[in-house]
Design a protein that fits this description.
Elements lengths: L13 H15 L21 E8 L3 H14 L1 E7 L2 H10 L4 E4 L8 H11 L4 E6 L3 H13 L4 E6 L4 H15 L19 H9 L3 E10 L5 E12 L3 E3 L1 H10 L3 H21 L2 E2 L2 E6 L8 H11 L7 E6 L7 H13 L3 E7 L6 H6 L4 E4 L1 H4 L6 H16 L3 E4 L5 H10 L3 E2 L10 H10 L7 E2 L2
Length: about 450
């Protein structure tokens, strides 16, 4: 028979209150008796400074109670608990949570299985991990979650401490202050089947257009260039996600047409900015398999010269998602692009088809580290080691190094201290239409870079 609940000592100190909660939890053998039923405010209770609704997923009653107390003492206003992944999913279905703080090693449904379920059914909820598993194990779970498009705030080794709770609160505050997207991109199910004719029409009528994301110097804080990224503003359904239409572009053999279209748009933007006194180098993505056409460097050079743009102000970023049929054509095409005077960037370094051999055998001018290594590098040991190694390698090979996917101030400071040259990411600026980037330059929100021409 369960013992009656112990009355809350209204004059107790904070440690005494914490001990009372743990005692109550052990007595009834239920996680939910600690924080899920809110206790009346007592002397010594902290002020609630973090207005976030947190769900703690922890199967061990004592550890769950400890985590909840750390969160409450740090000032979290609403903390609920669940003892299993199944229970947590049920609670998420009936309540709105800002973040799930979860363990990994649990019976019934382990943390990785729970992350998979969360990604499939509740992808907008933030997560943080606290576990007694090894740092490598937590890094692996975090990497898995990010690759499933979940946002991982941080990972904390057990025991979860008061400093961890404070760090989590600050991270959530920072996340809530990030700039919002320009417009939500529509998923595949909102569109009719994409045909070759539909894609041709989208290119011809400039529904598909370049949006520009600034690249900033970590030394000066100024814009040093922009990357042209394809965006589709469909007249009927609105903004279409690149993850939807870019695979269709490849499937229908439109990669070359998109490359020429994007280059043309980037060159025209360059010329318009130049008339306003701005010299802003542009970068355009080039799918590597297009180098199977040995004449491609000549075609690209002709377009650039016809627009009156200096070749040295145009960089082609070789995408890691494809490769040439003949490796010799890759080396030939890349080398000839450099002979024409273009910059050449190894994009998405660390994933796809990149190799140490191609990095050392091709005269790249820039190394771009993929966001998979950058995001969370400030707090994840393995990501930090990989990112630092890539920065050192790029510099040893005489390249400028750019980190992509920078979304937190902590990662930005980490990259600065690691000696990275340039950064791109939502923390700096999201991709935007030419008019919006022009307004950004006019307002000098990110003191512009760029070389001001006189």
């Amino acid at each position: 028979m369960a013992s009656p609940p112990v009355p809350c000592p209204t004059s107790a100190s904070a440690p005494a209150i914490a001990a009372w909660r743990i005692c109550c939890c052990v007595r009834c053998q239920s996680i939910h008796c600690t924080i899920h039923s809110r206790l009346p405010s007592c002397a010594g209770e902290p002020d609630m400074r973090y207005p976030y609704h947190i769900l703690v997923l922890e199967d061990h009653p004592l550890q769950c109670a400890h985590v909840c107390d750390m969160l409450e003492q740090a000032g979290f206003a609403q903390v609920d608990t669940a003892h299993s992944g199944t229970d947590a999913l049920a609670r998420i279905g009936h309540s709105t949570y800002d973040l799930i703080l979860l363990d990994l090693n649990m019976p019934d449904m382990d943390g990785m299985q729970f992350i998979q379920e969360l990604a499939e059914h509740y992808p907008d909820i933030l997560i943080a991990i606290t576990s007694a598993c090894s740092p490598r194990m937590m890094d692996s779970a975090s990497h898995m979650a990010r690759n499933m498009n979940l946002t991982v705030i941080d990972c904390y080794a057990k025991p979860f401490t008061a400093l961890n709770a404070q760090s989590l609160g600050k991270a959530l505050e920072q996340h809530s202050h990030r700039p919002a997207a320009t417009a939500p991109a529509l998923p595949a199910e909102s569109l009719p089947a994409m045909t070759s004719a539909m894609l041709d029409a989208a290119l011809l009528t400039h529904q598909i257009e370049p949006w520009f994301q600034p690249k900033c110097s970590l030394r000066t804080g100024k814009i040093v260039g922009v990357e042209a990224l394809a965006r589709w503003r469909h007249p009927d359904v609105g903004l279409v996600s690149p993850g939807v239409f870019l695979p269709a572009i490849t499937e229908h053999g439109k990669d070359h047409a998109l490359l020429i279209h994007m280059l043309g748009g980037a060159l025209q933007a360059y010329r318009r900015w130049a008339t306003q006194g701005w010299r802003i180098p542009v970068s355009v993505n080039l799918p590597t398999h297009l180098l199977d056409d040995a004449t491609l460097p000549d075609q690209l050079h002709a377009h650039v010269i016809a627009c009156g743009v200096p070749a040295e102000d145009v960089t082609f970023e070789l995408l890691e998602s494809s490769q040439t049929v003949d490796p010799g054509l890759f080396f030939m095409g890349a080398g000839r692009l450099r002979l024409k005077g273009f910059g050449l960037a190894q994009d998405d370094f660390g994933i796809g088809y990149s190799s140490m051999h191609s990095l050392t055998a091709v005269p790249f001018t820039e190394l771009k580290i993929d966001r998979a290594f950058v995001s969370g590098a400030a707090v994840t040991g393995t990501l930090a080691a990989a990112t630092i190694t890539a920065i050192m390698l790029g510099k040893e090979l005489g390249m400028k190094v750019t980190a992509e996917g920078v979304e937190s101030a902590e990662d930005l400071e980490f990259l600065r201290n690691a000696g990275c040259d340039y950064v791109q990411g939502f923390l700096i600026a999201r991709p935007a239409p030419e008019s919006e980037l022009t307004a950004l330059l006019d307002r000098e929100l990110c003191p512009s870079s760029t070389t001001h021409m006189h």
